## 1
Amino acid sequence: MISKNKIVPPASLESPGLKKKWNIEDSENLYRIKGWGEPYFSINAAGNITVSPKGERGGSLDLWELVEALKQRNIGLPLLIRFSDILSDRIERLNAAFARAIARYNYPNVYRGVYPIKCNQHRHIVESLVKYGKPYQFGLEAGSKAELMIALAELEPNSSESLLICNGYKDLEYIRTALLARKLGHNTIIVIEQLEEVAMCIEISKDLEIKPVLGIRAKLCTKGMGRWGSSTGDRAKFGLTIPEILKATQQLSAAGLLDCLQLLHYHIGSQIAAINVIKDAIREASMIYVELANIGGNMQYLDVGGGLAVDYDGSKTNFYASKNYNMQNYANDIVAEIKESCEQAQIKAPILVSESGRAIGAHHSVLIFDVLNIGEVDTSLPDPASSEDHLIIRNLWETYENITVENYQEAYHDAMQFKEESISLFNFGYLGLAQRAKAERIYWACCGKILEIIRQQEYVPDDLEDLEKNMASIYYVNLSVFQSAPDAWAIDQLFPILPIHRLNQEPTNRGILADLTCDSDGKIEQFIDLRDVKSVLELHPLEQSGSLEKKNYYLGMFLVGAYQEIMGNLHNLFGDTNVVHIEIQPNGYQIQYLVRGDTVTEVLGYVQYKAEDLLEKIRQQTEKAMQQKNMSLKECQLLLNDYEKNLASYTYLA
Ligand SMILES: *Cc1c(COP(=O)(O)O)cnc(C)c1O
């Protein structure tokens, strides 16, 4: 893991005694909203998150009010909100960045981006992207047969110059369909990823008497970085090595089809955080492109794949959750590098293609979920130790009483040792349950007192760094990490998480999040920070609304539009969440689409249970119980009604 440059935060100008009242700027800084959220997310005067889906071009809404309004319409949490205007804005920005780069470097050709469907295949998203992409001749990229079926149906043939890039492993049907689609007017380009595909393409095109447009995916030597670094190099899963590329051109040439080779493609992995890696790759690829043109390929397109990163933590560094460049730097470097290579070799500059998924999709989705309750470490003091208490308890008590700014580190070690001794004493039968409980309570009271001192210090000794984490409150949230943020669990991906309201109040708690699943991995305990990551998140205590009722506390997980939904799984049978698509209108907003989350019946269906069969089995059990006089008719009715209601309900807590 690469760690970020240490940046020392500006020293506070206030004297410690005069604490200023918390305001929304404090929240902005704490949660780093400007870093990852601009121009779409900010905080309004009421302390709620504001969403401006069109960026600076106007129209915004209060996220908390939106969630409340949706709940009024019976659309419960957890809820995924997709802002269609953000998708549109992302496409516009990417195209504008390439247009500016092309103008700036006088690049003698155009940019034709495609959206890689695998990033988020949901129909409403693909359809929106096709619609918003039309003015830019934005196309689609398919990485599998199923995705090709989507792309062919959703792209309008003949309507424009948009491309349909066909990647992934291919069989005969895949290639034949892609080829025949050219007759419909689709601009399909079949990218050869495996040497065997060359022979297949040659044979099928002879059979059908249709000339294909072919591309080759190159395995670059440039090392990708981070999580997907292994997408390049000799052992990468996809693409042809240089000797294989040569072989492919020879086979095409022998078949008289070398003029069909028009595109060079590479993809060095997703979320490339460092611009120098992007530059190295484009340099290597430009040279391969030039060489292919020189040996007779009819080269027209250079496809730089995906990898354009998203700044999840807003630190603008080459940390894995960030990126040390912006979209414009990215476009500039690609355009400049290709132009130079082609000029030197005196060949025609290619149409530029990129396949950005993450950078287009990530920002537009926000997952909203509520906090069910909070588990806190009890640091309240028990009765003082007396002469009747065991010596170990008296020692712990003395430790507690004598904790100061000067000795807190030593006191921490003492307290820890006494606690461990108390457990040994208990295990050997020298300490009763009540005495052990008292020892533990004093220990946690010590930790609480020490933590308060630590929070005032500029420097925390290493051995005390975990204390904040160990004492963190557990926020139980109405969500499955496995369904809604699988990358947070699988690969420690970071997403910005923060409350969507109360941001004008100081978040005085430190917490981690625990989800609804019975899996100990179902939690989030890494959060974005300016330096590296932090192990606890600043959160508010729950507010009381009645004697028993707590007020709702909503958290948002941001930038989840890329990959999370489709990689999500049914762990513990928590299904898809509710989804709404929101479109900004001149006088507010409109719900474009509502996609209801899975019901219990639906998720049971995925694992081959039929709701009616289950219900029938329970009905038979109740009959038996009634005959045996274990249950009354009324109890049976109640049970069966609830069983049926549960089957029809959302898989999350109401
Ligand atoms: C995954 C993938 C992409 C998308 O990458 P992002 O980093 O999301 O932009 C593009 N092209 C190919 C071939 C891919 O496999």
Note: The radius of gyration is 30 Å.
## 2
Amino acid sequence: MASRLFIVSLLLFSLAGTCYGEVLFSSLTRTLLVSASPKQGSVLKAGDDNITVTWGLNQSFPVGTDGEYKNVKLKLCYAPFSQKDRAWRKTVDNLKKDKTCQFAIVARPWDMSKTDQSFVWTIERDTPTATYFVRAYAYNSAGQEVAFGQTTDGKKTTNLFEIQAITGRHTSLDIASVCFSAFSVVSLFGFFYMEKRKGKSSSKK
Ligand SMILES: *[C@@H]1O[C@H](CO)[C@@H](O)[C@H](O)[C@H]1NC(C)=O
Ligand SMILES: *[C@@H]1O[C@H](CO)[C@@H](O)[C@H](O)[C@H]1NC(C)=O
């Protein structure tokens, strides 16, 4: 009985999930103003440089527009230039399948009393080299996207900036780790060789 109930509720849950889950980006209204500190065309270093992001409701929308906003998430997103020929970064209208914005910057509860909020983000060390912009999504209490805002225009051509990955910059560290593994392989062989010799000499006795 309990297990049947469980299965039924699981079924209902997944049904609700499919009806609820599909949010199309094209259905969202751009009500959020988002800005980020990097200037158009600047080059930042992953793991080092900071980005200040600022967000709030565009005040030309009527009071109460953000009535159902519960949370806001800021994300780092690939510009079209860095998506070309890379299916794993593809833009899909269905937000469940969209790969444009893969990097979380910050998530905060929506605060209606503030016209703008900001956050300083140190670019994560594993961010790949690419051209980016910043986008914010507002979520309702069901966790669905209900509005957005971004630092670039609708066609994603303005205010883009570049991030340089750590690889290729901290080569001394990489070289050190290669040397270390070479050393361990050599010492392993050395160890076996010594053991073999020891074995031989003791059998001679
Ligand atoms: C970024 O912020 C961190 C923490 O506040 C600070 O230690 C670091 O020096 C900043 N980096 C740059 C390049 O300003
Ligand atoms: C705020 O929203 C209005 C109405 O959609 C729009 O015309 C205006 O460009 C927006 N302001 C900014 C700074 O994006």
Note: DSSP finds two helices and ten strands in the chain.
## 3
Amino acid sequence: MSAIATLFQEGARLAAGFRETAFARHMPSSDYAASLAVFDEPLSAAGSDMLDVIRQLSDGAEPGLHATTGPRFFGWVIGGSHPVGVAADFLTSAWGQNAGNHVAAPAAAAVETIAARWLLDLLKLPAESSVGFVTGATVANFTCLAAARGEVLRMVGWNADADGLFGAPEITVLIGHDAHTTVFSALQFLGLGHDRVLRLPADAMGRIDPAALPGALDAITGPLIAILQAGQINTGAFDDFDRLIPPLKAKGAWVHVDGAFGLWAQASAKVSHLSRGIEGADSWATDGHKWLQTPYDCGYAIVRDELAHRRAMTIAASYLPLAGEGERDPSHYVPELSRRARGFATWAMLKHFGRNGVEALIDQCCASARLMADRLAREPGIAILNEVALNQLVVRFGVDCPDDEGDALTRKAIEKIQSDGILFAGGAKWRRRDVLRLSVTNFQTTSDQARLAAESIIAAYKSVSDSAGHGSG
Ligand SMILES: *Cc1c(COP(=O)(O)O)cnc(C)c1O
């Protein structure tokens, strides 16, 4: 066997070994400090043998790896990194294409074009929209909001892309009270300021209160960007697009939607009522590496007005033909020039699942979330604080105790769940109280896995509440 084949096979063997055992193990045995100790050595002068490097990397890293790819990983909102996407990513790395333009990487550019078309079709967004393949929803929000910034200023005769923001007409940014922190990062990067926003009040689930919009709009003049949300990070709730988008559009706003995971509701007949009206927006940010299960480093910036998208992302936009008129250069829709060919893994996942497979995946995650919610809610002392309409659960323990005791019990239950190691989920603050947050976004989380997880959570809670002298009630 050639040296390359031996090396690649060893990489594949180690990868498969990890995936097969990740099923059983939910907490890393090494934390950051322990992992640092493993790798902490001076850079060697002589270098190391190829095979040794890969084996040392695997041996050193594995104890510090979370089982994010396993069926009972409910922490943050993290997809499963499906094996088909991983294999496509191996190839992407091995091919070493620079996906900046279609001359340097014809196949990569072509596959992005097709994957973009499939995504728009699946997510029921306007077919004329352009899609940038970015690192994730943070950069997707940034990219979409850059297009928004350029366009709302262009409408009042200001070229922000050429002339910057010094002396520009002021833009009002409307955003919901419970928007994701990364959207504020995007505003920060764009010179719009993360605090220089008008926050619309939200209801108990984190949805913008539509009744608050008319009053807010009356007070606004000039360029306006409104940021709505599909899938609140804790509750999974959606803004009411049907009620919010028309008055915003009537006011001349650019409407952007952060749909990092929630946009995928569009792909399922069972939950697409949640996102009704979302196609009326101007731009949408979503992730491939959450619900579509691609490996990490994969999100999509989707913009209805392709020219606005390109103006924001490339200096040459004005003289280049639109994609419909010529070949599509991937770099015209993203901040980077040289990059990995992200379209291959997206194409592979869409090809593998097909339309029905994506729908079944979304439905399975939502059904598993519902099953866990129903089981946990039946247990005395445990309450589900959100309407479980999608895949997110906000769980509170010690509901019969005073708030501070409930906070303490909730934190203890989370510690116990994590140390038991049967599943992983983490804590969050919701409406200033401690909660356990569960996100079901893994293709392997079947009803059996959900049942096992729910029983383990209940057992962990009973053990901490008994030892705290509360009984389990
Ligand atoms: C995860 C998430 C983001 C950020 O996405 P990344 O892929 O981590 O960059 C933004 N908004 C929401 C609602 C999210 O869930």
Note: The chain has 14 helices and eleven strands.
